[in-house]
Amino acid sequence: MQDTDPTSASRIEQLTDWLRLQEASGVGPFHAKQLLEAFGSPRAIFQAGHAALLAHATPALARAVCAPPSPAVPQLLAAALAWAAQPGQDVLALGDPGYPAVLASIPDPPLLLYIKGRAELLGRRALAIVGSRNATLQGKANASSYARSLAQDGVCIVSGLALGIDAAAHEGALDGAGSTIAVVGTGLDIVYPARNRLLWERIAQGGCIVSEYPPGTPPTSSNFPKRNRIISGLSAGVLVVEAAARSGSLITAHVAVNQNRDVFAMPGSIHAPLAKGCHALIREGARLVDSIDDLREVLRLAPRTPGCAAAVPTETACLGLLAHLGHEPVDIDTLLLRSGSTVGTLSLELLALEMAGLLERLPGGKVQRISE
Fold it and tell me: Which of 110, 123, 272, 358 has the most other CB atoms within 10 Å of its CB?
């Protein structure tokens, strides 16, 4: 909130008004934004009167706004004030100085954002990376390496803290200066999925976790599609790494189109179920991505100097991986067995070799050394 003292009378009044508007039956973020554009603030909306509201709202909507505040408002107010009083936590209202302008521009921005971690990341240039929860090793390696490379150049990586591609993107981004934002569909006092608890804690320390839902909100299936508009809304574009034909990641991509965001998709084998969704997006007009440079161009990043040092600690590591590659196409699982490496380390080395022009990615999740 604009007043930094969570116990001040002005802050409490402001937050009460926002909560009242948020809880008004049938209003929702879309209609709330329309009313705010017409009247300027929640307090002005409530003071406008039924007749004035009818010029900008349906009769049912005007009645809902004029109705007494929801009985839930006092409890929500107490929870929000308690949350904001803790170090590293805050509650931002639409229009507050710290509220991200790029998110405020979407048709239905959240009226309130609950925040934990580095709130300054909300103002960074960002790219969303999303994909399947049941991702392949190759898909997770791609998500991790692309996120790490972009984060090293100061781009913030946004995703949804789900298993699979989301988690890999967050993990890769945490190693870079741009770091990462996780948008969740629960209250920020709940870790979901529980298997990502350690990652949740890392993001809370080195990144930022946000939600439009107040503390105590449990995981509900309807909340997760709604949070997708925030993932894309915070970002300049959305990259879908792997997605089945009917995937929640496609919802994020379609929402991004409606928000005038760029949509990117990684192709895969025509036989791979997790490539079907990406191929559908490409047919619909998404930009095909088979190189990190495709993203760097759109994000207006300076070209990287070719060479292994851009992405891996030493040249020796690159040369070692070249030996494991041989000269025939090879899949990631085989490379992991040959090298004894981890997915994260391998993805870094593969990206470095690709950027140095020593490796190409092939259909079916395979890679091949480019002979000199």
Answer: 110
